[in-house]
Design brief:
There is one protein chain. The protein is of the alpha+beta class. It contains nine helices and seven strands, in the order H-E-E-E-H-H-H-H-H-H-E-H-E-H-E-E. The protein folds into two domains: 182 residues, no CATH class; 170 residues, no CATH class. Helix 4 runs antiparallel to helix 5, helix 4 runs parallel beside helix 6 and helix 5 packs antiparallel against helix 6.
């Protein structure tokens, strides 16, 4: 773990406020290996060369929330050909062929209606995706140059984006309903094919009956293939759109935090947190300890002033860890100042726990799954103020 953290180039920045002055050092990376505040001088010295927020050039290079294009929908137009007309032979088998031909005609009409529904849904989904990304682009353009926290215009655009994404979600629901209908048609086509083949065994047929049965069987076969292709392409559309909506919902949550802060953080951490990665050698799932002795914190947040601004630095630190180890977990430790009377220590402990819960909510808003974060609390006599430490495990 120590070797992993030693490879991090920039971990975090910090903000601190003394009784007389304001300095940008409250959120700083610990680079000394000590979890106590005795490491503060060295860490603070390192933090002076690390900006608390990206420069304007760096902000322009950050990925935009929801800026990716929506997944492409299928383009096939599933139009079945006309059914070949037949001639009456006057036999019982000939009458059976006419009945089967009528069933095929009705089934193909049903496929035409399903295809029309599919093309209409695709058109609506494209419009809704365009409206959604227009709202997202408007938000990101404001965030890139900076804006006021909780800007009402941004909030309104976020609501429009959320509505657009909900419309796409409804389109996916309509696709699911259509897929169920097509699956029913597929079952009917399989039954019609078996019935057509069984008609060859009926007695009392003439050669013309078998000729018409052969033509009918070929057309039913082609219809079965057409239905399978329709169902497969529809299923692919549903899978892509479902994953897309889930990812964008996560990005919207991170975007709401960016609007609240007035600056862009980046894409949701959930997009990397669930990526596939090989297990880290020497670790066993569920075998990690919450002990912090000898461990270097990834982030140390000092809550020695109201409204500590830590979100951007926290996001940057966690994001870089997840880029290297997508399956990484985290330990969030509330560190209470252990100085003063027992009552003062108790009050400090309660405050540090509330601070840790605030940081935990921020991580959740950034898209980090809460099952990856373990929460604990300690009291340290070396701490001059309440702190929150984040460790990688």
């Amino acid at each position: 773990m120590a070797r992993l953290l030693s490879h991090a180039t920039v971990i975090c920045s910090a903000v601190a406020l003394s009784a007389c002055s304001f300095s940008m050092d409250s959120l700083w990376p610990s680079l000394t290996g000590d979890s106590s505040s005795s490491a503060a001088p060295a860490a603070t010295q390192s933090a002076k060369s690390i900006p608390i927020a990206p420069s304007q050039g760096e902000k322009r290079n950050q990925p935009l929330v929801g800026a990716g294009a929506p997944p492409a929908l299928g383009t096939t137009n599933f139009v079945p050909p006309a059914v070949t007309p037949g001639q009456s032979t006057g036999t019982f088998v000939g009458q059976k062929v006419n009945l089967l031909r009528g069933e095929l005609q009705r089934m193909r009409q049903q496929i035409q209606r399903q295809n029309s529904t599919l093309q209409a849904i695709r058109g609506e989904t494209g419009k809704h995706a365009l409206a959604y990304h227009s709202a997202i682009a408007s938000i990101n353009s404001r965030l890139q140059v900076g804006t006021t926290p909780g800007n009402p215009y941004m909030v309104n655009q976020w609501n429009i984006a959320q509505s657009g994404l909900s419309n796409i979600d409804r389109d996916v629901s309509q696709m699911n309903s259509l897929a169920n209908s097509v699956a029913g048609t597929s079952t009917m086509s399989a039954y019609l094919l078996e019935t057509t083949r069984a008609a060859y065994g009926l007695s009392g047929a003439v050669e013309a009956d078998h000729q018409q049965l052969a033509i009918l069987e070929d057309e039913v076969n082609r219809t079965v293939v057409l239905i399978d292709r329709l169902l497969n392409e529809l299923s692919e559309d549903i899978n892509r759109q479902t994953a897309y909506v889930a990812s964008e919902r996560s990005n919207l949550t991170a975007l709401s935090l960016a609007i609240k802060n007035g600056e862009s953080l980046g894409n949701s951490l959930a997009n990397r947190a669930y990526a596939t990665a090989a297990p880290v050698a020497g670790t066993t799932p569920g075998n990690a300890s919450l002990g912090t002795a000898g461990r270097r914190p990834l982030v140390v947040i000092r809550f020695d002033r109201p409204n500590v601004s830590y979100q951007q630095a926290l996001y940057t630190a966690v994001n870089r860890v997840l880029q290297r180890r997508p399956q990484a977990g985290f330990d969030l430790v509330a560190v209470a100042a252990g100085q003063g009377s027992a009552a003062q220590v108790t009050v400090a402990s309660n405050k540090s726990k509330r601070n840790a819960e605030t940081v935990l909510r921020s991580l959740s808003e950034m898209g980090l799954p809460l099952q990856r974060v373990r929460l604990s609390a300690i009291t340290s006599r070396d701490a001059n103020s309440n702190e929150v430490h984040l460790y990688v495990r």
